[in-house]
Amino acid sequence: MLLSALAVLLGSCNLSELPKEPTGTQESETPTAPKESDAPPTIPKEASTLPYDGIYPQHDPYGTGIGAMPGLVVWAYDPDSVDWDGSGYWWELDHFDESAILRMVNDAVASLGGKDNAKDGWAALFTAHSGGAGYRAGERIAIKANINGSAVYDDDTSGQTKMSYTNPVLLKALLTSLVEEAGVAPENITVYDVSRLFPDYMVEMCTAGELKGVRFVDRDTGVADESAPIIRSHSFSGAVNYLPTCVTGAAYLINLANLKGHSYGITLCGKNHFGSFINGNAMRPPEGANLHQWLTRNEMGIYSPLVDLMANADLGGKTVLYMLDALICAPSEGASITGDNSKWQQSPFNGDYTSSVFVSQDPVAIDSVGADFLMNEPTVTERNGALRDNPTVENYLHEAGLVSAAPSGTVYTDSQGHTVTNLGVHEHWNNSSQKQYSRNLGKDEGIELIFLQK
């Protein structure tokens, strides 16, 4: 049973304190209270908070929240969604409860739209993004998956790797929700990553039955739209990047990223678009574009190519939903996922898998939340020296939150000649135990993190 939908809709349910030992109960506005340990207790707004314990410098919110419910990030957590003993490959389908994951997606979408069911939630999200028109039959949707760990060095599409990529069961759940709840025809949906190859088993399971007609576009089948080059907001050497036609031909985009560490620190929704362009370097488009130099300098106040991608009219400008796959999280993109290096210590995980999905319509807010989780997780930081004690990995979030007057002095545009003045809101939680943001604490601006637990 999820947290009270009414509490979520009214915004009166602050993100709860997450104790090290989850033994408390949750007060509910519904007649039937959740069972003991279903959810940790609500923190009264007047209660004192614990000291800030983060590595990132704490500050007031930067930017303005956007979305149907501005600045909202919904976190769905169900420990029963993942059941893996650590043997074999992490992605094997019998490690996941498909019905539980579909329920997590539907409940998260409903809450994000401020509704009590996924159908109305999707309608609210499309309406908010389109400025009132809503989704219209026949409009195309492109889903950017993160397939970075698949076929990294070769053309092997068997999926036989322990490296991370988009969870196949979560992708199927998202597609199912779009078809069943949002009313999108499968033939109008394209899943893409033009820098990698999708595993065969993933394509098969996500194009069968009611999903027949869904298309997949990869580095072998992606077609560059040479009328749509990405115009950088800062001049430097590198190949010209072209968006694929599956993006330029879409009315909407969904950014399905991973919550995981990276050899450059973190990789979330912003960096997911490193697989959204074509430039002649089929195996390594970001290297062809010379982008990595901006992620390795360990400096604040410098230009970020991630912000250019977030601001791009065909990428961020079309995105109706941002989602973080946090079912099983990797310490780095190149790490082989094991049971040991993917079980998190912080509450409410307490030595188990993260078993979570995060959604938002605010790209800056969702990556800010993801950055807090990653930096404050010992399982990740003990295995990722690029992230550990390195607050400069959030440079792009400062640039994005302050985009109207970016610290680097860069004037970011949407790649179509328009200056971008707001991309969303950036801040950090009050502490790693309570995980509360400004709107949770009763303020008018900032992030609100809503926690849904079975």
What would your notes on this structure say?
With 454 residues, this protein is of the alpha/beta class. The chain has one domain (44-453). 21% of the residues lie in helices and 14% in strands. It contains twelve helices and 14 strands. An eight-stranded mixed beta sheet has the order 4-3-2-7-10-13-1-14, with helices on both faces. Helix 5 (200-205) links the parallel strand 3 and strand 4 (215-217). The termini are close together.
Topology:
Layout: H1 5-10, E1 72-77, H2 98-112, H3 118-130, E2 141-144, H4 168-180, E3 189-192, H5 200-205, E4 215-217, E5 224-229, E6 242-244, H6 245-248, E7 252-258, E8 260-262, E9 265-267, H7 269-272, H8 285-288, H9 305-311, E10 319-326, E11 343-344, E12 352-353, E13 356-360, H10 363-375, H11 378-381, H12 395-401, E14 448-453
Parallel strand pairs: 1-14, 2-3, 2-7, 3-4, 7-10
Antiparallel strand pairs: 1-13, 5-6, 8-9, 10-13, 11-12
What's the short story on this structure?
The protein has 454 residues and is of the alpha/beta class.
Task: Fill in the keyword field for this structure.
14 strands, alpha/beta, 8-stranded mixed sheet, 454 residues, globular
- Taken from the alpha-carbon principal axes, the silhouette is globular
Classification by helices and strands: alpha/beta
- What is the H/E order? HEHHEHEHEEEHEEEHHHEEEEHHHE
Question: Residue share in helices?
Answer: 10-25%
Reported for the largest beta sheet, the result is: 8 strands, mixed
Segments where pLDDT lies below 50 for 5+ residues?
A: 1-47
Q: How are the strands of the biggest sheet laid out side by side?
A: 4-3-2-7-10-13-1-14
Termini Cα gap: 5 Å
Count of domain modules: 1
Radius of gyration, CA atoms, in whole angstroms: 20 Å
How many H/I helical runs? 12
**How many strands appear in the DSSP assignment?**
14
